[in-house]
Amino acid sequence: MCERLAYEQAAYEAGYQKIIGLDEAGRGPMAGPLVVAGVIFPQGYYDERINDSKKLTAKKREALYNIIIENALAYHIEVISVEEVDELNVYRASQTGMIRCVEKINVKPDYALTDAMPLKDVIPHDAIVKGDAKSLSIGAASILAKVTRDHIMIDYAKQYPEYGFEKHKGYPTKAHKEALEKYGVTPIHRKSFAPVKDVLNKQKQMSLFDL
After folding, report:
1. How many CB atoms lie within 10 A of CB 157?
2. Cα–Cα dist 176/144, whole Å
3. CB-based contacts of 6: which residues, under 8 Å, 6+ apart?
4. Burial of 44 (0-12, 13-18, 19+ CB in 10 A)
């Protein structure tokens, strides 16, 4: 048996039939939404190319995105807005997105595999540390989430060309921080994140000084 199906197989052997893999993309960026995905494969499905999205090139992720949605029994992608990330905090937003995937996917799962995220008592589950590299289902979810979020950030790059979102996808790179300092905070920046808060505080102080 393939190692990357071990968690799925253990769940099948325990009597579960519809196993959803869950993962997110975008916990670290200071701009853009958080995207969570859930994937249910038919029992025994395997594709050796599916892996943790971070270990794949953008070109491979794009190709696998289509393969996953074509072969999945069901999938669901949930986009968590910047406002909700700020309101909940990024951990709770990730958990909320996974729970929504469980509730909204069009085939009802009876077991979940997550990338280290407990799901309360919503569904029996296994929260696996580095699960996107250990479980095929979680790895597939990571690819759907990553590709979806990258597309969103590339679209935002057209709206806010000064920030270079098409390159760093909102992560706090040096170039992004420099653009934030120079051009200010956009509506898609997470105001609860420290670098963004710092810029907002500077803007407030300057406004008070001007008065």
Report:
1. 18
2. 25
3. 134, 135
4. exposed
Whether pTM > 0.70 for this model: the answer is yes
Q: Put residue 127 in one of left, alpha, beta given phi > 0 → left and psi -120 to 50 → alpha.
A: beta
Dist. CA 125–CA 154, nearest whole Å? 34
Which pLDDT tens digit goes with each residue over 148-184?
A: 999 999 999 999 999 999 999 999 999 999 999 999 9
Size (the chain), residues? 211
Partner residues linked to 25 by β-bridges = 35
